[in-house]
Amino acid sequence: MGLRKDFLGIHCSEILGEDGTPLLRSPSDWKWGSIERKEIPIRAECGPQVAGYPTIIASRFSPGRRWYRSNGVTREVPMNFPGVDLLPANYERDYGKWDCGPGGETVVLKLSPSYIERNFQKDIHQTGFETKFSFKDDKLVDALFSLADELQQDTPNGMMFADGMTMSIVGWLLKHHARKNPLESLDNGSSGLTAKQQASVREFVATSLAGDLSVETIAAKLNISPFHFSRLFRTSFGMAPHQYVLKMRIDRAARLLRSDSRRSISDIAMAVGFSSQSHLTNAFKRCVGESPARWRQLHD
Fold first, then answer.
1. Whole-angstrom distance, CA of residue 127 vs CA of residue 129
2. Helix/strand/coil for 47
3. How many CB atoms lie within 10 A of CB 87?
4. How would residue 182 be classed by pLDDT, with cut points 50, 70 and 90?
5. Over the stretch 243-272, which tens digit does the pLDDT of each residue have?
6. Contact yes or no for 232/192 (Cβ under 8 A)
7. pTM
């Protein structure tokens, strides 16, 4: 009987907040998999481990040295700063050891293959990521840490924005780091949506502001994969789907603030699809430059 294998990264502690709980927890309505902020120990060893899921590890720490043993062969693995490890679901190792500088932080993103297939209409297991260690991709590192910040702050820009960020990360991985780029066969989106499709999107968004307006939901109305829909949408509308939905919600909120002075801001927030009054207030101030209450006073 073989040795039991732990999931990759179990030996690294999650970074905790002042209340003693992890700074970052995957929100229940974020369906892409799991994401954690981990603290890299200065010196450590670990036994048998398996990835289990397609795993992306973006690290910001001082360079050091590490050694991994797989299939009886031990080799030193590079450690660059900053760097990315990309591991397919079937990646395994028998032993690991490392020695690095203090203050190491990493974001670990474990992707759900079934959700990627739903959004890209491609099976990530068939596509296959290459195993890569500590490769340099500043754009990917910045995107992963930005996604972690967004989720850690309880998605101040809305879950649709976080979904769009994740979709962009996965699209980048499939395009640049898969054994075979599964996106080559797709139209690059230069033609955009047809006039009929654009009208359908406008009508659906306008009548559904209070409901679920994820990219996946809107794309399903046109029977297009969410990733391809996003590219076509940007060509046609000049902005990402989440930006358009946010604009429509802010515009609707402004009209309600002006036309119904007795209606509470919290009620308006829920009516146009924001999860709370504070969520509306933060988004409104970013887009308009004033809080909803102040804007109402100025336009009363």
1. 7
2. coil
3. 23
4. low
5. 999 999 999 999 999 998 889 999 999 999
6. yes
7. 0.81
For residue 108, pLDDT over 50 is answered with: yes
Q: What is the pLDDT of residue 268?
A: 95
- Measured between alpha carbons, how far is 108 from 51 in angstroms, rounded to an integer? 11
Structure tokens at 158: 């809305």
Tokens of 168: 């962009």
What is the structure's pLDDT at 36? 92
Which candidate, 171, 157, 250, 166, places its Cα nearest to that of 209? 250
Q: Which ranges of 74-156 does DSSP label H, i.e. alpha helix?
A: 113-120, 124-127, 138-152
**In what helix (H) or strand (E) does residue 66 lie, and over which residues does it extend?**
strand 65-70
CA distances from 287 to 146, 172, 206, 241 (A): 20, 28, 19, 16
Alpha helices in the chain (DSSP H): 113-120, 124-127, 138-152, 159-176, 195-206, 215-222, 226-237, 241-259, 265-271, 277-288, 292-298
- In the chain, pLDDT over 70 holds for what percent of residues? 91
- 210 touches 267 (CB < 8 A): no
Is the peptide bond prior to 82 cis by the omega test (within 30 degrees of 0)?
Answer: yes
> What mean pLDDT value characterizes the chain?
86
Which pLDDT score is estimated for 173?
A: 87
CB 88 within 8 A of CB 54: yes
Q: Are 237 and 175 in contact (CB under 8 A)?
A: no
What is the bridge-based pairing of β-strands 65-70 and 55-60? Answer: unpaired
Closest CA to 11 of 110, 132, 98: 98
- List, in sequence order, every residue forming a beta bridge with 129; answer none if it has no partner: 178
Instruction: Report yes or no: 111 and 170 within 8 Å, Cβ to Cβ.
Output: yes
Half-sphere exposure of 257 (CA within 13 A, CB side): 26
